[in-house]
């Protein structure tokens, strides 16, 4: 299956940001819903910083380690944040592709109707299209649904792990 | 998740495909400039290049509002689908109101609170699992998890807290049976129904059971029994013209027989179908786009037929089963007939003609139908101490209210 993903939502916008932030803040920025995928893009202010633009496609995350040692995230935090970003990207890629094709196919069905078609005929043609669409997309939707469910649970558990670790650190119980 | 395969290109493919194919390899700037997105066509390996929408300026992003107490309560009520939860609590209250057994205000209130917690948990767990799908449908686009008003971790904590509190309140304040029904309903809705929505059309039937279980919860909370046993056998309350005079006065303790909660369950179960199938037909486009497997998408005719079947079942439940079980007098069979015939006619037209307009008509009828029928049931409840004015049962057309019924029961 050839699915070329869009770049991770946050990274393409980081060129506007200063790369050296004096104090990390945990503000999450949410944009308006994407016109095609209907998902809202999110910038997590506490993500790992991106690599410089020329190395955008480096296979490893070169920005994993902050120059300030005390600001380095724990492995749990990094794991969670990377998974969270990946899940957002998975959703965006899937729905962008699916909705592009759905709208194009629906438009083709509507334009294929004769000019003498009544509203009821149009409804019937669309009913047939919806049924065909669902049957056609079945395996892709099943794969995506399984992927989404597994990753969603994983992200929630990972964030629980991070919060638990923070709690231990706060109460001084961790080693 | 990034699977790269090389596309197969037939040597005799035409120029358009070749141009798209070469643009794939020879213009490396497209990867660093992010000007376009490439998707695959549905029935072939043709690659369609979509120009990317203008990348959003930073100013278009807004920070997530910090959760103050009032905002938190608003988000919690949205997560628990407050309006739906209230209707579920009212259904449980109706079950308690119709039960002939006496109940007290603490039991009433604690059942309401316990049911509200169970509903909150079930609805939150459902929303947690459906974030990207809710984003696709216009109806559900503004849910709190979709618009990132709350983190999934926080929502999960809320779901777990209410999911434990609900059954615990029900177990300690009423009885274990009600608590078990409440907990099973959470699992049925958040587990089975939500999972099945993407797998099979039978999710609607499971959802109908979920909607009808509150009726049973109300009955058990007041102390009634659900299953037949030697001490609680099934008893039929025949219409007065079929009974001999020696059967009067009615032995009202026989109302606590398993046929009564079954009849109420069947009413609530059958009602779900005209209600949901009508709405489902009208929004079948959204369901198809979001990838839900619903009968209205896969077989709209069958969808309308199912709603008609259950409209017929509703009519027979109201006309025969409910008076037979002793929940109401046989007057109910007559007074519920106009409402039943109106809904039956709308369901028939929906099946025969099958348009969006007819579907919404069936849905709108279902909205007033249930409160009217429940009101009539409470009005015609068996055992109300009305002065006997006719020999056709212990009922009179004086006005009554639910509060009067409750006061009588508490005495």
UniProtKB/TrEMBL annotation, chain A:
<dbReference type="Pfam" id="PF10231">
    <property type="entry name" value="COA8"/>
</dbReference>
<protein>
    <recommendedName>
        <fullName>Apoptogenic protein 1, mitochondrial</fullName>
    </recommendedName>
</protein>
<keyword id="KW-0809">Transit peptide</keyword>
<keyword id="KW-0999">Mitochondrion inner membrane</keyword>
<dbReference type="GO" id="GO:0097193">
    <property type="term" value="P:intrinsic apoptotic signaling pathway"/>
</dbReference>
<comment type="similarity">
    <text>Belongs to the COA8 family.</text>
</comment>
<dbReference type="InterPro" id="IPR018796">
    <property type="entry name" value="COA8"/>
</dbReference>
<dbReference type="GO" id="GO:0005743">
    <property type="term" value="C:mitochondrial inner membrane"/>
</dbReference>
<feature type="region of interest" description="Disordered">
    <location>
        <begin position="47"/>
        <end position="72"/>
    </location>
</feature>
<keyword id="KW-0496">Mitochondrion</keyword>
<keyword id="KW-0472">Membrane</keyword>
From TrEMBL, chain B:
<feature type="transmembrane region" description="Helical">
    <location>
        <begin position="202"/>
        <end position="221"/>
    </location>
</feature>
<feature type="transmembrane region" description="Helical">
    <location>
        <begin position="149"/>
        <end position="171"/>
    </location>
</feature>
<dbReference type="InterPro" id="IPR000537">
    <property type="entry name" value="UbiA_prenyltransferase"/>
</dbReference>
<keyword id="KW-0808">Transferase</keyword>
<feature type="compositionally biased region" description="Basic and acidic residues">
    <location>
        <begin position="400"/>
        <end position="411"/>
    </location>
</feature>
<keyword id="KW-1133">Transmembrane helix</keyword>
<feature type="transmembrane region" description="Helical">
    <location>
        <begin position="177"/>
        <end position="195"/>
    </location>
</feature>
<comment type="similarity">
    <text>Belongs to the UbiA prenyltransferase family.</text>
</comment>
<dbReference type="Pfam" id="PF01040">
    <property type="entry name" value="UbiA"/>
</dbReference>
<feature type="region of interest" description="Disordered">
    <location>
        <begin position="391"/>
        <end position="411"/>
    </location>
</feature>
<dbReference type="GO" id="GO:0006784">
    <property type="term" value="P:heme A biosynthetic process"/>
</dbReference>
<keyword id="KW-0812">Transmembrane</keyword>
<keyword id="KW-0472">Membrane</keyword>
<keyword id="KW-0496">Mitochondrion</keyword>
<dbReference type="GO" id="GO:0008495">
    <property type="term" value="F:protoheme IX farnesyltransferase activity"/>
</dbReference>
<keyword id="KW-0809">Transit peptide</keyword>
<dbReference type="InterPro" id="IPR006369">
    <property type="entry name" value="Protohaem_IX_farnesylTrfase"/>
</dbReference>
<keyword id="KW-0350">Heme biosynthesis</keyword>
<dbReference type="InterPro" id="IPR030470">
    <property type="entry name" value="UbiA_prenylTrfase_CS"/>
</dbReference>
<dbReference type="GO" id="GO:0031966">
    <property type="term" value="C:mitochondrial membrane"/>
</dbReference>
<feature type="transmembrane region" description="Helical">
    <location>
        <begin position="259"/>
        <end position="283"/>
    </location>
</feature>
<feature type="transmembrane region" description="Helical">
    <location>
        <begin position="304"/>
        <end position="324"/>
    </location>
</feature>
